[in-house]
Amino acid sequence: MAKNLVIVGGGAGGGATAAEAKRTDPSLNVIMLEQGRFVAFAA
Ligand SMILES: Cc1cc2nc3c(=O)[nH]c(=O)nc-3n(C[C@H](O)[C@H](O)[C@H](O)COP(=O)(O)OP(=O)(O)OC[C@H]3O[C@@H](n4cnc5c(N)ncnc54)[C@H](O)[C@@H]3O)c2cc1C
Predict the structure, then answer these.
(1) How remote is the CA of residue 35 from the centroid of ligand 1, in Å?
(2) Of all atoms in ligand 1, which is nearest to the CA of residue 39?
(3) Global pTM?
(4) Phi and psi based region of residue 40 (left: phi greater than 0; alpha: psi -120 to 50; beta: remaining)
(5) Exposed / middle / buried, residue 34 (Cβ in 10 Å: 0-12, 13-18, 19+)
(6) Is the CB of 43 under 6 A from ligand 1?
């Protein structure tokens, strides 16, 4: 069964973490939660 990774915050740090996690383990199910309207606007 695939592992889940939940990232709270869709800023530069959240996006970079999601990308690196997927590179490390492509089978990961990555969920990014962002409270604002835009994701990675500062990246
Ligand atoms: C005015 C200003 C100008 C800047 N200019 C530059 C620049 O020119 N070049 C540069 O390299 N850097 C710049 N920076 C710095 C850059 O913006 C930050 O280093 C970078 O955004 C940090 O990314 P982060 O993901 O750690 O945090 P953030 O960008 O703060 O992302 C955190 C995210 O988490 C979300 N969040 C918080 N709590 C929750 C919650 N409970 N549930 C869901 N989502 C949540 C927030 O909405 C936010 O989107 C600037 C910063 C500022 C303030």
Answers:
(1) 12
(2) 49
(3) 0.87
(4) left
(5) middle
(6) no
